[in-house]
Write a sequence for this structure.
């Protein structure tokens, strides 16, 4: 497959996305993943190239719209059940580490 | 950390403000946006949760039909177009109050878009363009534990997910230009009138103090007459109508001081502090704006049928401006009286008071006089005072039947504001009814004449206007609990 630079993804972009997604990638993993992701993007670009104007972009595999439920209450979890998987619990709430750092 | 502010007159001499308002409304559906959990306010923490709103693996969302209906009705009431086809999108970010690590929202396909609402301020109508109204879900509620009680300096936080997943509609205006000195008042009036509109639709409790209506104020300044848009700030946490006005004015003065000094406004999120009346910088992370939106794969598109949309349009309540015109004609109010009534947020209150049997002018007198003064003193809205239209109508009925005079009626309102019960209970408990015992009244009149012989002589000489002093003395002796007209009759009977 010929190189199409506009559809490749750079190592820096992968590193940025990994940071946003809170995925800790090593240098070796970045070296490995960036070219692989580029291949995927190039493949998608090829498909887009053959799809004519009569083929709209699609985001769902099912040809369905308007799937709704009635506004009727259904039983959920008890607080005990909800909190059972939490690493730390305090005052019947999920206890989470400090949200902001010390910069402010 | 104190900001330099330019005087308001100098701001206006040099700059044109551009406003933008983002209002988040919690819908009053019985269940959440994507699951069947209850939305009741004030429940014990984490008792209204399920795998879907906790973001547990394997759970799937299903859209609440009632929330879609409410969103369409809001869009129609704001003169918006309703999308023929639109999708939900994932807004990706990491924050503990958002258990899925994304918020299900709408991105470039809002359900309603391109509308407007007319806002009236002191007799001038400003047309506020509506950019969009889109559907999304609320987050959980965090409590920050540490010496500050705020997120900054907290040691850790506790999260309650009862609120996570409650349906929200975000209503975003287009830039509002040309408001000049009135920008803060227009901002306040927009939120106030939007609140009234949503209340009329019955889609939300719109209680700002409980957070079911929340407002962010975007503001920028441009050199006067330039026709450009400056760099904006987005002030969050502006959660009362009065704060909307104050925060807008504060940011205008803060921006102007920076720009007048040759500086550049930093595009950022600011936080409004109700107690100190200032905004502070609030942006946490430089990469937080990169939300990587993409269509939500777990929810199929929405394509609201045109018949359904037209049916909802036909069932909308009377638009506010038509309602105002109709009520003004029915009540015979002058333009000024009507404007003051609307401006005070008293239209519905006056309407209900009249419906409960009070005359239009009397209903207006109580709400815009005595009660407006008290709302102003306690810095609350009339609707939040704790006095109902039924109370006002009952107090006036007691005045009409001669049991109370206006002074005693004001004491009944004291009792109502202090939560002492119904008007009749307060009259009984405080012993406020007018004394109709003619003997006691006559004695008080005789005392007043005896104590003020020179006044009595003036009246005997035909100066009836002097009677006021004697009536005042009698009312004082009767501790206000007398009918002033009857006292006047008794005074004049004796001296003329």
């Amino acid at each position: 497959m010929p190189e199409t630079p506009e559809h490749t993804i750079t190592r820096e972009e992968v590193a940025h996305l990994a940071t946003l997604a809170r995925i800790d990638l090593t240098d070796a993993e970045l070296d490995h993943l960036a070219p692989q992701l580029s291949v995927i993007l190039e493949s998608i670009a090829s498909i887009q190239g053959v799809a004519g104007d009569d083929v709209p972009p699609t985001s769902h595999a099912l040809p369905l719209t308007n799937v709704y439920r009635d506004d009727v209450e259904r039983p959920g979890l008890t607080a005990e059940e909800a909190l059972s998987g939490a690493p730390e619990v305090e005052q019947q709430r999920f206890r989470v580490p400090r949200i902001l750092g010390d910069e402010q | 950390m104190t900001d330099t502010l330019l005087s308001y007159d100098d701001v206006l001499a040099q700059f044109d403000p551009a406003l933008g308002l983002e209002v988040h409304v919690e819908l009053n559906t019985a269940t959440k946006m994507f699951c069947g959990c209850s939305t009741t306010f004030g429940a014990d923490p984490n008792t209204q949760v399920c795998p879907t709103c906790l973001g547990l693996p394997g759970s799937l969302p299903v859209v609440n039909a009632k929330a879609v209906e409410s969103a369409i009705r809001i869009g129609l009431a704001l003169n918006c177009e309703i999308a023929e086809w639109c999708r939900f999108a994932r807004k990706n970010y990491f924050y503990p109050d958002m258990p899925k690590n994304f918020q299900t929202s709408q991105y470039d396909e809002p359900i309603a878009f391109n509308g407007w609402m007319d806002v009236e301020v002191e007799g001038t109508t400003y047309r506020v363009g509506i950019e969009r109204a889109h559907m999304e879900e609320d987050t959980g509620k965090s409590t920050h534990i540490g010496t500050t009680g705020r997120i900054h300096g907290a040691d850790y936080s506790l999260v309650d997910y009862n609120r996570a997943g409650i349906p929200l509609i975000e209503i975003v205006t287009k830039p509002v230009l040309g408001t000049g000195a009135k920008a803060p008042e227009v901002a306040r009036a927009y939120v106030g009138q939007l609140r009234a509109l949503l209340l009329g639709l019955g889609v939300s409790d719109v209680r700002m103090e409980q957070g079911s209506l929340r407002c962010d104020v975007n503001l920028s300044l441009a050199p006067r007459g330039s026709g450009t848009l400056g760099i904006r700030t987005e002030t969050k946490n502006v959660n009362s109508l009065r704060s909307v006005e104050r925060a807008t004015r504060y940011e205008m003065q803060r921006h102007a001081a920076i720009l007048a000094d040759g500086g550049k406004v930093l595009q950022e999120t600011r936080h409004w502090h109700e107690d100190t009346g200032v905004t502070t910088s609030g942006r946490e992370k430089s990469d937080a704006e990169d939300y990587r939106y993409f269509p939500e794969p777990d929810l199929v598109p929405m394509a609201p049928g045109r018949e359904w949309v037209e049916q909802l349009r036909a069932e909308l309540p009377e638009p506010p401006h038509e309602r105002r015109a109709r009520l003004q004609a029915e009540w015979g109010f002058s333009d000024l009286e009507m404007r003051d009534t609307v401006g005070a947020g008293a239209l519905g209150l006056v309407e209900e008071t009249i419906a409960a049997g009070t005359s239009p002018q009397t209903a207006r007198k109580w709400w815009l006089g005595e009660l407006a003064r008290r709302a102003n003193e306690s810095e609350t809205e009339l609707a939040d005072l704790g006095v109902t239209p039924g109370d006002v109508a009952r107090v006036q009925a007691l005045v009409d039947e001669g049991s109370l005079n206006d002074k005693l009626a004001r004491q009944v309102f004291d009792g109502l504001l202090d939560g002492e019960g119904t008007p009749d209970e307060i009259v009984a408990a405080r012993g406020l009814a007018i004394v109709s015992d003619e003997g006691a009244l006559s004695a008080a009149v005789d005392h007043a004449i005896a104590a003020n012989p020179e006044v009595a002589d003036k009246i005997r000489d035909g100066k009836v206007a002097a009677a006021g002093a004697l009536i005042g003395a009698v009312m004082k002796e009767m501790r206000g609990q007398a009918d002033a007209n009857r006292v006047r009759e008794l005074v004049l009977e004796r001296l003329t």
